[in-house]
Amino acid sequence: MSLPDVPRLGFIGAGRLARCLARRFAAAGFPVVAIASRTTESATGLAARIDGCRAVDT
Fold this sequence. Notes:
Blueprint: E1 9-12, H1 16-27, E2 32-36, H2 40-47, E3 54-56
Parallel strand pairs: 1-2, 2-3
Organism: Burkholderia territorii
Domain Pyrroline-5-carboxylate reductase catalytic N-terminal: 8-51
Protein name: DUF2520 domain-containing protein
């Protein structure tokens, strides 16, 4: 099995660090595809700011 050239990223948690990292990775061209958090509102809020990203239920 070969790995993709550019990894797809997901974050567990939608706090301050995840918000900064996820947005910076996305701006640098890395596909941020999923955000999971204890609260759906937090995950949905962060995912909405990143193209191609979705909130996932934990």
